[in-house]
Amino acid sequence: MESRSGTRSEDGWLILSTETHFANAHLKVVDVEMRTPANPKPRSWTIVHRKAAVVIAPMTRDGKLVLIRQERLPIREQIWEMPAGQIDDDVGGIADPGHSPPHPTIEAVALRELREETGWELAEDGQLIPLGHYFTSPGFTDERGYFFLARPVQAGTAGHAHDASESILDCRSFSPGELSRMIRENEIRDANTLSICARLIGGGYLTLAPNASP
Hints:
Blueprint: E1 2-10, E2 13-23, E3 27-36, E4 39-50, E5 53-58, E6 65-72, E7 77-81, E8 84-86, H1 89-92, H2 104-118, E9 120-135, E10 144-155, E11 168-174, H3 176-184, H4 191-202
Parallel strand pairs: 5-10
Antiparallel strand pairs: 1-2, 2-3, 3-4, 5-8, 6-7, 6-11, 9-10
């Protein structure tokens, strides 16, 4: 257990003390005491610092989206989701959770995760379009995910290269109608996929009609 005290000011947020309870290569659990811009009285909070991540929406020439079916241990389920992956520490990790806009190194991570998790890749005439970022669960963690639309994508010649820690069971492309049904019937229910779909719709890249047929 590591304890550290001191005051750091950032836009009116004053961190009075920090105590680390657990840390590994992926996350750090800390107790902090801080003053906020809206409340001068010190507040205590447990925060999980976690590496920033990329979330990729791979879109084919005919407008389908490529999803992976992955086994997720914490929820003990197999779910369909967009490919995603953590960003290395030197790009936007625990020490620097990614307060800067995406840059070429983060884009390279997105393309790598696309290839490794799906076996698909950006076509020669394709574009990797940054769509901003979101916070996965701001009530307890500062983790953020950078969104990218990769279009058009095509099946790669080398196939996928899953990490040893991953359990990716399937990879398929889905039409907007199929995606709409899967969201409506709660078949898609992870924050990454639901959030990037909302960003795609808001940006005019995707239309999900309420009762669209596949």
